[in-house]
Fold this protein.
Amino acid sequence: MSKNRLNVNRRDLFIAAASVAASGMLDVSVGAVSDYKDFRSDKKAKIVIVGGGYGGITAAKYVKKQNPETSVILIEKNPFFVSCPMSNHYLGDFYEFSNLCFPYNNLTVKYGVEVINDRVQDIDLDKKIVITPNFKISYDFLILSPGISYDVKEEEKPFFIANPPAFKPGGEHLYLKKLIDEFEGGDIVMTVPAYPYRCPPAPYERAAVLLNYIKKRNIKAKLYFIDANERPVINSEGFMNAYYDLYKGYAEYVTGTYVKGIDAEKKVVKTTNGDFKFDLANVIPPMKASRLIEKIGLLESGQRWVEVETFTFESKVKDVYVIGDSARSFLPKSGFGAHMQGKIVANNITEKLTGKKAKDELLMVLCYSMVSDEEAIMSETSFKIDKATGKIIPIHREDNVRRKSTVKRYNEWARGLWRDLFG
């Protein structure tokens, strides 16, 4: 098999290994306080944000912009931002990994947000203190945007480290790309969990770009695409037409099928519809709120997502907000959805600080998906909201026709979003 021009180098693999460990697969970020030397120093901020993804960055930027004299601290364990949106482009070999990466220092230089590169071990909600290995940080308002954790058993974690789902940003994508580049043929098993999970179209887009990858390189391979859902949960017509028109004979799409277990030694994924052997596996497990959320008591027993107030995203604890993928929301679990939530929370906190009514955000979500290296489909959902009655009416539109022009819009959408985060 011809090797692609974006082979992962040793430096990337070092970053990958470090990032996989930091991603939360091992849950090292929420270990017992006694696991660390107590060399913390005290800090204080009016607003503390935990998690530097789309939601956390947006909240930090906008609350500081609206309240320049207010102290704002963003805590993020990773040294730089890596975008999950657009990461399938990297896996499919038509996007550079570096295009997904941005430094956090722009938030400090341009807006005055203090960024602390550290892990959050614990949060004392009664005393209003966030605890890291290096700091005890007190706050008046707390915004939690720590993302997801994989809902897997302890004994399954080694498999998922060796075969990363790549639904957390950074090292997982680098390592999965390495596995794809080294794949010389055989059976690929990819699975989709029951909805909800992070980014509704992402597994279906990934299946398409993987099929495009093996077709373009004439690799003798077959994808067994095993979906717990009965059909793609978004852009169903567009994805199904692409699979049939572009990749017929390269894949078998198995629906309504759940993963029961994995035999890593025999390289078999066991499902409710039989066993599937693999040479390359991308098992996407069920997801739930970050383990940190569970540890501090915001997640009720048996819940996977945090209940928040519908229009403000405030949790059951006053002045503590949960946004992004950890929250149960009418907005989908996506980077764009988290971005919108960050703006809403910033407006709400500004209203509390100033007493002035904040503007209402125009609520909408855009989703784009590649179906080959040249064509894409898209959907958009806007929300009519009646706060008096609590009614939310989604207005959904899909463009399921594969278009090159949609690829251009996709790239413009991503660049615009990144400019809003860091520009």
Q: What stands out?
A: The longest strand covers residues 391-403. Confidence is low (pLDDT under 50) at residues 1-38.
